[in-house]
Amino acid sequence: SQPGCGQYPRGRKINIAHRGASAYAPEHTLAAYRLAIDQGADYVEPDLQLTKDGVLVCLHDTTLERTTNVRTVYPDRARLETVDGQTRRVWPVVDFTLEELKRLDAGSWFGPQFAGEQIPTFQEMIDTVRGRAGIYPEMKSPAKYAALGFDMPRALLDVLRKNQLDRPGADPRTPVIVQSFEAESLRRLRRLGCRLPLVFLIDDEAPGDWISPAGMRRIRRFAEGVSPSKQIVLQTPEVVRWARAAGLSVTLYTFKSNATGAFPDVEAEMRHFLYERDVDAVFTNNPDRFPRSPQPK
Ligand code: G3P
Ligand code: CA
Description:
By secondary structure, the protein is α/β, with parallel strands linked by helices.
């Protein structure tokens, strides 16, 4: 493998199914994960949240109302949340036990053919994907969970250990890479003895002071890869070179079928970033459109 970019095979571009094949099936359901594998994804991405009883489950949001029927099933369990002067009702994942979450429908919002899909546990996700693709978990809001007394990095490592997936190369058919927007959670994984490749996500709306050659070198102290949003690369194209010079792999998010602007479609957009800007990997809702070569067929 490439020195300093150890988590990806040298020269091979990597197709990561973002929330599963989430353009075609409800994100973070086993249906979306299975479809991603059928469509040729190299890795499947579960975002992780914690239940009231400390179980890792696969969901992007910290609350349930966007992707489940929680309003109907638990109408009296909402909290009021005020953001920018607007108050709304939310149903935090962490207010519910796993048993309670399993009563929710996580598929119907996307289409009636997905009625009955449940929120999967991380264990169920592993059982579905193992042997067929890699697993690319994201710890969501670990600081928020820490403030509630949960140790998300430890919970993640415990599940991976139980499945003997906690070491690089433990299962060559199922490599594992861990990602987070929060540097401290990656450092915590390291302190807990985790030797898996780690990838640090950077949001264009809150890029911190990471987007510089020195920033990339600081990331290399606790991670093997960096994953900026594609907007960051458009604004600061040099970031790819700075990351490589620091020994980091580069993974971009997120590529969707409604690509706009300079690209006719999502495949052309991914091709541009992978082969002209030479990034290693992309998170995409459309793993079936991933370009395996620089030239269109
Ligand atoms: O983890 C990469 C990408 O998924 C980050 O964005 O909000 O979709 O988790 P988000
Ligand atoms: Ca994610």
